[in-house]
Amino acid sequence: MRLVPVPPHAFRDALLAAGVPKPETDLILYLLTTVLDGRNDKPADGVRAALHREACSFEDYATRAVASGVWDV
Asked: How far is CA 16 from CA 39, 42, 43, 44, 51, in A?
């Protein structure tokens, strides 16, 4: 899997071309640009409080999951 950055305006145009209504397109873009703007890139202490362990990044989780073989078919 490879991440390919797509500019928000190009994604919006593709959604509209695929028939997604403008209000839904606007909402999707708002959510994606808010989530992906960097404000949520650090683990919070909610994991520690809920699970009694330190949080980790998604990259760390994915690396461990791949190494465990859980996704091997």
From this structure: 27, 32, 34, 35, 41
